[in-house]
Amino acid sequence: MSDPGLAEAASAGGHLSATWLAILDKMPVGVTVAFPGGHAVFRNSMTRKILGQEIAATDERFLYEGLVHENGQPYQVHEYPLARTVRTGEVIEREIVHYRRPDGRLMVLEVNASRITAQDGRMLGVCTFQDVTEENERRQALREAAERVQLALQAGAIVGTWIYDVQTDVITIDELLAKSLGLDQEQRLRGMAAIDWWSIVHPDDRAALQAAAADALARGGAFRQQYRVREQDGRYRWVEASGMVELDGHGRAQRFPGVLLDITAWKHAEEARTLLMHEVDHRARNALAMIQSVVRLSDASDAAAYREEVLGRIDAMARAQTSLSRTNWEGADLEDLVREEVVALAPADRFHISGPKINLAAAQVQPLDMLIHELVTNALKHGALSVPKGRVEIRWRLGEDSELQLNWRECGGPRVTPPEKVGFGTRLIARLATQLRGAIDMNWQAQGLIAALSWPLER
Asked: 20 to 30 A from 65, CA-CA: which of 4, 235, 387, 435?
């Protein structure tokens, strides 16, 4: 272990095994372990990267420096998430904090912390955190967009007005609303039956609108409902209907005037925010599920080999996440992904890579990256890359019906025989091909492994 923090933590009374500390050191989030007194015995590489400074493993400062309130005032010692955890046992989940790096950059971090009991009975505080600055900035932009839309509505973003005569069951509308709906002046002045109004309401919104209108007509008073209406060009627009039901002396509804406000932009901003949060949650769940599978299913009979296999696979996941982050999680270039993964494990001159420019969908990046990682790892252990003269050729092409076909061919290596039993690596390759909604054929010929992977290209 090159990190002194790992060595100290591993030797601190057997609190954490060296293998698990090494795995934690590769995690794509910051990880910190401390005793209740505040003495830090471990922080992983991502902790230093996020905090932007090198800190000695025994240095207590990083537990209690850098966090600031939104007004710029520094945190007091007792306010720090990890300090609260190690001293009181408080469990902290997804707490948002602000951190000022030594270079002056202000970051937004999401923190989780809890206290655990080590094998020797002593208490340890464990804290994980990740940089959510960009996500926070996007959410702030969405909030500001929603506020601008609200100001526009208040300034008069009106689609039109209506008056519903309850006794005659006729709705009359103004000229502005008539133009939006494609009604002529005569029809506008004559009015329209209430049943005709329902025909321009989006089918998915009719039941809720009818129920809300019936409730307002029964009780009288204010009415407000959001729904979609079909415009003259056939497209639907989100509106908010605000009105007031007027009752007669006997409590019966007589007149129902109101106004329609255009809230389409606000709705789109709300949908974008929801999609963003779902995507972030989906990404985190997928990454954790894959890490759990790798840790649980890798062969642990040889501790050293187990550690190397697990760390290698987590490294491959991290490289896939880096590829996605460069395109704002919209996908990755196939050649860049393949080339970056193979050269991370072996010299570039051992590979011949060729194929047309292909943009992969975001969902395909991680499984393909890990699949290539498994093939390279196998070649290093048993195939062409295990000897100096061995080479690997990787080619791909786009076939019919947008099906991608990637061929892996090894040559110049030792004589190859099919494996007597299917190992975890081979099973993982098959599972990753399934995640791509494709299939892979593994052909162990005497001159080297030939693998043919095919999967549909997502647009």
From this structure: 4
Q: What b/e string do you get for 431-447 counting C-beta neighbours within 10 Å, with b at 16 or more? A: ebbebbebebebeeeee
**Residue 74: DSSP 8-state:** B
* 220 within 8 A of 246, measured Cβ to Cβ: yes
CB atoms near residue 92 (< 10 Å) = 15
Domains and their CATH numbers in the chain: 4-131 (3.30.450.20), 152-264 (3.30.450.20), 298-456 (3.30.565.10)
- Are 126 and 115 in contact by the 8 Å Cβ rule? The answer is yes
Beta 170-173 vs 221-230: how paired, if at all?
A: unpaired
Residue 42 contacts residue 31 (beta carbons within 8 Å)? yes
Dihedral of CA atoms 396, 398, 402, 403 in degrees, nearest 10, equals: -40
CA dist., res. 407 & res. 126, Å (int) = 45
> What is the spatial distance between Cα 237 and Cα 228, in angstroms, rounded to a whole number?
5
- The pTM for the full model equals 0.43
* Secondary element (H or E) of residue 386: none
Q: What angle do CA 427, 432, 433 make, to 5 degrees?
A: 100
347 has a pLDDT exceeding 70: yes
Residue-wise pLDDT tens digits, 264-299 = 888 877 776 666 566 555 565 666 556 666 666 566
Residue 100: is it exposed, middle or buried by C-beta count within 10 angstroms (0-12/13-18/19+)?
A: middle
A 10 A CB-CB count for 15 gives: 21
Q: Which residues are within 8 A (CB) of 289 and not within 5 positions of it... i.e. 6 or more apart?
A: none
Which regions of 26-178 does DSSP assign to beta strands (E)?
30-34, 40-43, 67-68, 92-100, 106-117, 123-131, 158-165, 170-173
Residue with tokens 């007091």: 76
